Amino acid sequence: MDAVRAVAEPRRREILRLVWDTELSAGDIAERFDVTFGAVSQHLKVLRDSGLVTLRQDGRKRFYRADREAMGPLAEYLQSMWAAKLDALAELAEAAERAEAEQSENT
């Protein structure tokens, strides 16, 4: 599977976001999802086979990290997409705070 098709799945994009700046074990990644460990493991395999994450094995544990260099221009796109989502979330939070403050003033 190519990299673009691999990141088309929302859970795989979320896994990439989790391992973007840090290395996490498969168990740590799986804990953050409401699906089975096996399902997360399959997503990790797709990401690994697509060259989007690297795998480091330490004993019985497997650690994953995004391979931004191998992603090429896709890395910039993903990072800008996440930044845009964070900006939108910040705007929503600020709007909620303003609405709450206005409501407090009116009561």
Automatic annotation (TrEMBL):
SUPFAM superfamilies: Winged helix' DNA-binding domain
Keywords of the record: DNA-binding, Transcription, Transcription regulation
SMART domains: HTH_ARSR (SM00418)
Top-level taxon of the source organism: Bacteria
Transcription listed as a keyword: yes
GO molecular function: DNA binding; DNA-binding transcription factor activity
Stretches assigned to the HTH arsR-type domain: 1-93
Classification via PROSITE patterns: HTH_ARSR_2
Keyword Cell inner membrane: no
UniProt protein name: HTH arsR-type domain-containing protein
